[in-house]
Amino acid sequence: MAHATFPDPLVASGPKAVSGMTTANAPFIDDALAHGELFIEQPYGLYTESNHEAWSRLYARMRPVWERHANEAFLRGIDSLCLKLDRVPRLVEVNRFLSPLTGFRAKAVAGYVPSFLFFDCLRKREFPTTVTIRRGDRLDYLPEPDIFHDIAGHVPMHTDRAFADTLVRFGECAHTGAEIARSIRDAGERRETLKSIIRAMARFFWFTVEFGLMRSRDGLRVYGSGLLSSFGEIQHAVESPRVQRYPLQLEWAVNQGFAIDRYQPVLFVVEGFEHLYEMVGRMEQWLKKGKLNNVAPGEPIAADADVDSFLMAL
Among 14, 49, 161, 291, which is disulfide-ready with 286 (CB 3.0 to 4.6 Å)? Predict the structure, then answer.
């Protein structure tokens, strides 16, 4: 399938250039999805000055917050990527600095990536990356990802070898889940089992990669990308007495629902990325033993597209 592409001048012409690459208002993305194109090329010429200004304002206000609350690996990573402060990043430039460090690369996508495809990308050291950016009057945390969340929140962590290897191991877990489904003959039972596995994996990913905390010699530090890209929640996560913080336990995380439209009331703490890598390995062992086939119901609900993505991998 052909990728959606666009010439890469700094100034593009036509109606799409006027609309830019703003989240929920990007005709280029609408066109790509209408043509069934999920993996795309970043249409850099479509970013408007308003889009670049939004990036600049987001980056400027987050930098001092990162210095106070982000973990050391993130701070090293954000510097090693050499991101421009006043321009939306070009993914080709991000990858030029990222790939030599851990083999990871940012891969532009037009929208939501179904679960198996997402985890399979991680297994191949590819990170599905949103290329739109939030509106300038909505700079706070949004439920949907944007390029600031993905590039400034996630990708700096991908420069750390131990963390990158942990993401690859997440991808291996998805393949293990697909193999488990393959062994179930009844179609209805197979789908219900996959829904539980997807729910368990999504919860564990949420409470670690997206909203994880880590112990350090200087106290709690943030490594979860949902926190690292949220001006309001990052300090709340570390300091607020209203947040319950527990050492990461697999049985708690996979059975704990979450909501994406509010500050998180429960967070989990790891001792380091080696600890996190071991926990993902333990999750894979639980998968093989069938211990994730019937986790607690509730959020998130596995969409049909997520279940189908696993079934298509059989």
Answer: 291
